[in-house]
Design goal:
six-stranded parallel sheet; 397 residues; alpha/beta; 13 helices
C-alpha cells in the first residue's frame, strides 16, 4: 500500500506552500477551451487557503521547450482561477519563472493569498530535473504539495527535484484519489476483479497485460489490439490494425492466462468496414473471418453482450482503451456498450485516463464512474505496477 502524507496531514498556517497543479489546458487564442483541470484542482487550493497557507501555484503548459513563448503563458489561467475561486490569483510572470521580483512577491504574501508562477517549462532544466531550477522553486516555499498526477510519471524539477530541498512534501486531493484508486485498488482489489483493455496497440500495453494477469480474475481484450490476438490464433484480419511481430507474444499471454486460471475474453465477432471512415460500408463478421480489403473498426454486438455480462458481478473494474473507433459514431457501439455496463454495475469502476476517459465523458457516462484518472501516461504506468517518481517523491506518512 502507498501511504503518502496528504494535505490533511500537514499544517500550513503562515507557511509558504508551493503547490504543483496540472493546468495544462487547451488554449485557443488565449481562451481556455476546456477547464476540467482547473476545476479539479480547486479542492486542494481551497484547503490550503482555508488553512492559512500562502499559496504559490505552479504548472507547465504545452511544450515551450525551455524558452518563453507568449502563447503558452499561464496568464489566462490566473484570470480564470480568480473567477473560479472568487479570490484574486495574482500572476507573477517571469521568463525564468523564479527571479528576484517573484521572490519579493512571495515574501510579501499574507496568509490565504494566492499567486501563480509562469509556465515551469519556460526553463530548460524543468524536464531534465536540473538542480538549479529545483533550488529556485524550493527557495520560494516552506512546504511542497504535488497535485499534478498527469506528470507523476516524469521526474521534473517542479514535481520531484524540488522535494529534495524542502522539509515537507505532501500530495493534494487529486493525487491522493489517484493513489487510492489506481495504485491501491489494483494491488489490493475487491474481487472479482475485471480489467478491460482496448486501444490500438498490444506493444504499448505489454507490461500492463503482464502485470494485470497476476492480479485479475478476468481480462477482457478489445479494440485494435484484439486483431493481433486473432491473427495469432490463425484468423484472417484483412486490413485491420495488426502488429505481426507480437503474435507469439499474444499466444504466450493466452497460455499464461490459462496457467493462472484467469479468464481471458477476446471478441467473437467484429464490425468491419471497407474504408476507414464513418460512411464506409460495414457489416458484422465472426472474429478471425475478416475478408481482404476490409478492416475491423469495432467489437461486434455478440462480443459487446459477452463483455457487458462479464462485468455484471464484478466488484472492481479497471478500463483502459476504447473497444473501437469511437470517434466515428457508426463504430462507437462497442465502446458505448462497455461504458453502459460499467455505469450499471455496483463495482468500483476505474477509468485509466486518455482515450477511455474521453470516451466515457463524451458518451455521457462520466458521472457514473467511481474514478476517472486525470493522467493517460501516468495511469498506464500505475497499471504496469511501476513506481511513479512524482508519487515516490512525497513523504510517507
Amino acid at each position: 500500500m502507498l501511504n503518502k502524507k496528504s494535505v490533511e496531514d500537514i499544517s500550513v498556517k503562515g507557511k509558504r506552500v508551493l503547490c504543483r497543479c496540472d493546468f495544462n489546458v487547451p488554449l485557443i487564442e488565449g481562451k481556455i477551451t476546456d477547464e476540467n483541470r482547473l476545476v479539479a484542482a480547486l479542492p486542494t487550493i481551497k484547503k490550503l487557503i482555508a488553512d492559512g497557507g500562502k499559496v504559490i501555484l505552479c504548472s507547465h503548459l504545452g511544450k515551450p521547450k525551455g524558452e518563453p513563448k507568449p502563447e503558452l503563458s499561464l496568464a489566462p489561467v490566473a484570470k480564470r482561477l480568480s473567477e473560479l475561486l472568487d479570490k484574486e490569483v495574482k500572476f507573477v510572470p517571469s521568463n525564468v519563472v523564479v527571479d528576484d521580483s517573484v521572490k519579493a512577491a512571495a515574501d510579501a504574501m499574507e496568509d490565504g493569498d494566492v499567486i501563480l508562477l509562469e509556465n515551469t517549462r519556460y526553463r530548460i532544466e524543468e524536464t531534465k530535473n536540473g538542480e538549479a531550477f529545483s533550488k529556485d522553486l524550493a527557495s520560494l516555499c516552506d512546504v511542497f504539495v504535488n497535485d499534478a498526477f498527469g506528470t507523476a510519471h516524469r521526474a521534473h524539477c517542479s514535481n520531484v527535484g524540488v522535494t529534495e530541498y524542502v522539509d515537507t512534501a505532501a500530495v493534494g486531493y487529486l493525487m491522493q484519489k489517484e493513489i487510492d484508486f489506481l495504485g491501491n485498488a489494483v494491488n489490493n482489489p475487491e474481487r472479482p476483479f475485471v480489467a478491460i483493455l482496448g486501444g490500438a496497440k498490444v506493444s504499448s500495453k505489454i507490461s500492463v497485460i503482464e502485470n494485470l494477469l497476476d492480479k485479475v480474475d478476468t481480462l477482457i481484450i478489445g479494440g485494435g489490439m484484439s486483431y493481433t490476438f486473432s491473427k495469432a490464433e490463425g484468423g484472417s484480419v484483412g486490413k485491420s490494425l495488426l502488429e505481426a511481430d507480437y503474435c507469439d507474444y499474444a499466444l504466450n499471454m493466452l497460455e499464461k492466462a490459462k496457467e493462472k486460471g484467469v479468464k481471458l475474453l477476446l471478441p467473437v465477432d467484429t464490425v468491419i468496414a471497407d474504408d476507414f471512415s464513418n460512411d464506409a460500408n460495414s457489416k458484422v463478421v465472426k472474429a478471425g473471418e475478416i475478408p481482404d480489403g476490409w478492416q475491423g473498426l469495432d467489437i461486434g454486438p455478440e462480443t459487446a453482450k459477452i463483455f457487458s455480462e462479464a462485468v455484471k458481478d464484478a466488484k472492481t473494474v479497471v478500463w483502459n482503451g476504447p473497444m473501437g473507433c469511437f470517434e466515428m459514431p457508426n463504430f462507437a457501439a462497442g465502446t458505448e456498450a462497455v461504458a453502459k455496463a460499467l455505469a450499471d454495475t455496483d463495482a468500483v469502476t476505474i477509468i485509466g485516463g486518455g482515450d477511455s476517459a474521453a470516451a466515457v465523458n463524451q458518451l455521457g457516462f462520466g458521472d457514473k464512474m467511481t474514478h476517472i484518472s486525470t493522467g493517460g501516461g501516468a495511469s498506464l504506468e500505475f497499471l504496469e505496477g511501476k513506481e511513479l517518481p512524482g508519487v515516490a517523491a512525497a513523504n510517507d506518512k
